[in-house]
């Protein structure tokens, strides 16, 4: 090897080393610059200042607990006690929990651990807060006045028309129309039966083996009916909505597969000799799958109105483009010998496609369709929130109320169970249809 060749190799090696060093410093520098850009573009500092972790903690607590509302009207002084402030969860007349005590004209609400609220005459309220003292609030006919002064603590939100006191023991809200106490308890109360059900407060063993609780119904049939028609948790409506969500995904996915399969032949070079037809069909596939399903949902809901069928159509339109591309690519790679073998029997063109082409792409077709069925089950939840169908509608309604977060948690758990089931079912069906039963 000549000296010139050695020098050239040394120069090349030095150049490679310098380039690797440059890349080693440039990549972290680019990433750092990108993170700095994100910090200012997304206003991370402002987001940190605006953050209210206590609200997140309240929301998290609401997902696994329930509130009992004690409501005193400022118009007539009447006291109402109900679960989550709903009429369907109201305590019957003359029935009150033991922590709500009548003492003459005063209603005492013992929240435990030293926290106590007293509803006094003349729309006045007192809240004993351990470590702070007694907070007084009263609606005097024009505004809500307190003894908090000009610098209330952080856990008190006070204005002319509303005072909200949030503590670990409970919450008191005084407005122009009412005074309301929220007392928190763990668990999902009234999940099985509402208060007006004869089975409320009775355990499973007592319902199954105890005496008849309703003279007109058997315990098992009556309990099943009251559970299914629970006015607070609406189990019947919820499971119907789950069925609508699965049906949206099923109709949209398999409808798209049925539409895309014949159209994919027009996009495959082997089966569509005219380039103009192939180009037009591929651009149509690109268009329908390039527009997100949520956009199609909005467009179709304006055309056909809200409902689960509109959601199924949105999934069908989007997946038609995706399946058309996948199926046409599969058609490009079919084995020509199998088609020639079918043709040698004297089969007509349609018979060649049926017996020489379709069997080759069936594994790909089924695999992709079943995978998209599983994926669209999740998508149908969001689509249902827009079109007004399925479990998506119920979860949107529960979120909009800003108080039924335990119902939101219930719906999310059901959605997770539904997705897990669809994942298992699609995997099982895929193995059965494509690979066959391994045991045989």
| DSSP strand count | 12
Provide the low-confidence segments as ranges. none
How far apart the termini lie comes to: 67 Å
Computed structural class: alpha+beta
Largest sheet: 6 strands, antiparallel
Binned, the helix content reads 55-70%
Which shape, going by the Cα principal axes? Answer: extended
Q: Which architecture of the largest domain per CATH?
A: Orthogonal Bundle
Please write the string of helix (H) and strand (E) elements.
HHHEEEEEEEEEEEEHHHHHHHHHH
Radius of gyration (Å): 33 Å
Total domain units: 3
Structure overview:
- With 440 residues, the chain is of the alpha+beta class.
- The protein has 3 domains: 3-47; 67-186, no CATH class; 235-435, Orthogonal Bundle (MetI-like fold).
- It is 57% helix and 16% strand.
- It has 13 helices and 12 strands.
- The chain has helices spanning 3-41, 44-50, 53-64, 204-209, 219-228, 235-267, 275-290, 293-304, 308-332, 336-343, 349-387, 390-401, 405-435; strands spanning 65-73, 79-83, 100-103, 106-112, 115-120, 124-129, 133-139, 144-146, 156-158, 162-166, 171-175, 178-186.
- Strands 2-1-12-11-10-9 form a 6-stranded antiparallel sheet. The chain has a 6-stranded antiparallel sheet with strand order 3-4-5-6-7-8, with no helix packed on it.
- Strand 11 and strand 12 (178-186) form a beta hairpin.
- The longest helix is centred in the N-terminal third of the chain and has 39 residues, at 3-41.
- It is extended and about 100 Å long.
- The termini are far apart.
- The model has no long low-confidence stretch (mean pLDDT 84).
């Amino acid at each position: 090897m000549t000296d010139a060749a050695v020098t050239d190799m040394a120069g090349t090696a030095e150049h490679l080393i310098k380039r690797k060093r440059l890349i080693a410093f440039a990549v972290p520098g680019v990433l750092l610059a990108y993170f700095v850009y994100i910090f200012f573009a997304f206003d991370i500092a402002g987001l940190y200042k605006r953050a209210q972790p206590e609200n997140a903690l309240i929301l998290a607590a609401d997902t696994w607990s329930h509130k009992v509302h004690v409501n005193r009207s400022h118009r007539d002084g009447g006291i109402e006690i109900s679960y989550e402030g709903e009429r369907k969860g109201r305590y019957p007349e003359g029935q009150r929990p033991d922590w709500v005590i009548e003492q003459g004209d005063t209603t005492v609400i013992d929240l435990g651990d030293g926290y106590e609220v007293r509803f006094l005459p003349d729309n006045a309220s007192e809240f004993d807060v351990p470590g702070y003292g007694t907070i007084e609030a009263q609606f005097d006919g024009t505004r809500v006045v307190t003894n908090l002064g000009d610098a209330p603590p952080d856990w008190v939100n006070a204005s002319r028309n509303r005072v909200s006191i949030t503590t670990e023991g409970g919450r008191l809200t005084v407005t122009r129309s009412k005074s309301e106490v929220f007392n928190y308890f763990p668990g999902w109360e009234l999940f099985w039966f509402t208060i007006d059900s004869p089975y409320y407060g009775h355990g499973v063993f007592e319902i199954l083996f105890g005496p008849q609780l309703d003279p007109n119904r058997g315990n098992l049939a009556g309990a099943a009916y009251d559970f299914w028609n629970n006015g607070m948790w609406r189990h019947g409506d919820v499971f119907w909505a789950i069925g609508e969500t699965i049906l949206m995904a099923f109709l949209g996915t398999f409808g798209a597969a049925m539409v895309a399969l014949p159209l994919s032949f027009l996009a495959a070079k082997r089966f569509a000799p005219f380039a103009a037809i192939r180009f037009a069909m591929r651009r149509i596939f690109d268009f329908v799958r390039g527009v997100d399903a949520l956009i199609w949902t909005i467009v179709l809901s304006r055309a056909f109105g809200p409902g689960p069928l509109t959601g199924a159509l949105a999934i069908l339109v989007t997946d038609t483009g995706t399946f058309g591309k996948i199926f046409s690519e599969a058609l490009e790679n079919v084995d020509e010998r199998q088609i020639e073998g079918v043709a040698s029997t004297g089969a007509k063109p349609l018979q060649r496609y049926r017996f020489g082409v379709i069997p080759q792409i069936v594994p790909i077709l089924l695999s992709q369709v079943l995978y998209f069925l599983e994926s669209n089950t999740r998508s149908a939840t969001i689509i249902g929130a827009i079109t007004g169908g399925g479990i998506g509608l119920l979860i949107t309604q529960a979120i909009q109320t800003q108080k039924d977060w335990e119902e939101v948690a219930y719906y999310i758990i059901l959605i997770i169970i539904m997705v897990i089931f669809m994942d298992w079912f699609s995997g099982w069906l895929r193995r059965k249809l494509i690979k066959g039963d391994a045991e045989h």
